Amino acid sequence: EIVMTQSPATLSVSPGERATLSCRASQSVSSNLAWYQQKPGQAPRLLIYGASTRATGIPARFSGSGSGTEFTLTISSLQSEDFAVYYCQQYNNWPPIFTFGPGTKVDIK
Amino acid sequence: EVQLVQSGAEVKKPGESLKISCKGSGYSFTSYWIGWVRQMPGKGLEWMGIIYPGDSDTRYSPSFQGQVTISADKSISTAYLQWSSLKASDTAMYYCARRGGGADYGGKSPFDYWGQGTLVTVSS
User: Fold this and answer.
1) pLDDT value of residue B107
2) A58 phi and psi angles, rounded to 5 deg
3) Which residues, including other chains, have CB under 8 Å from residue B43's CB and lie 6 or more apart?
4) Are strands A10-13 and A62-67 parallel, antiparallel or unpaired?
5) Burial of B118 (C-beta count, 10 Å sphere; 0-12/13-18/19+)
6) DSSP state of B64
7) Res. A67 pLDDT band, cuts 50 70 90
8) A20, A72 contact by CB (below 8 A)
9) Across B81-102, average pLDDT
10) Test mutation, A49, A58, A87, chain B, max B CBs within 10 A
11) B-chain residues within 8 Å CB-CB of A91?
12) What is the percentage of chain A residues whose pLDDT exceeds 90?
């Protein structure tokens, strides 16, 4: 079973600053890694898939990188609407099996 | 427009049974896997299982195998998550989500559309 870890658990950032979130897989997931954003009271939203491809409608300030076991989500200049919890998820298995990381909460400094 | 619409909030007692639903529209329901995700109060996302409505192929997370049953009725484009005997620890928000098509995501795919969630409260 693949275990996903995320760091830090909480990231305090000022608006306009850069945020860097990390995600690690216990074994290689190739580039089959997604990032989701969840705001309070809302369902998660797909931000990044294939480790680095933005989903439809996602602003260019969100970028993803990495492959294998180490991944990064970068928000280049935080806007007020970006304060949320971010989850990574691996989807490398077939038949489909998914694993989420524990999440990183990005809050206002 | 792709939509997943889930059934409404439920309040149940321990030991009762429950079946919640997720109705898909705006796409070919039988051609995409539908997964279920649990979110306990104040906690993270946990993948529970997934079903392919086209042939009812179903897979479960080891953590949820035997605890819930996932099914689908393709004639009404609806997936289900059910419990035979609820526990207080089943209190959570439950989301359904569509696994994207391989052609859209280069093979293996993430969850690209999500339902609004169904809050299940189990309390005596």
Assistant:
1) 81
2) -85, 130
3) none
4) unpaired
5) buried
6) T
7) very high
8) yes
9) 96
10) A49
11) 99, 108-110
12) 94
Least confident of A53-62, A63-72, A90-99, B5-14: A90-99
Tokens describing residue A38: 């969840």
CB count in 10 Å sphere of residue B115: 25
Closest partner residue to B59 among A36, A49, A95, by Cβ? A95
Contacts of A36 in chain B (CB under 8 A): 45, 111
Distance from the Cα of residue B119 to its chain's centroid: 12
As given in the structure block, the two tokens for residue B85 are 């005997």
DSSP string, A54-67: EPTT--TTEEEEEE
Which tokens sit at B119? 């809050």
Cis peptide preceding A95, ω within 30 of 0: yes
Q: Tell me which residue of A7, A24, A9, A21 sits closest to A90, measured CA to CA.
A: A24
Do residues B72 and B53 touch, judged by C-beta distance below 8 A? Answer: yes
Structure token digits, residue A70 = 């180490």
Question: Once rounded to an integer, what is the mean pLDDT over residues A7-23?
Answer: 97
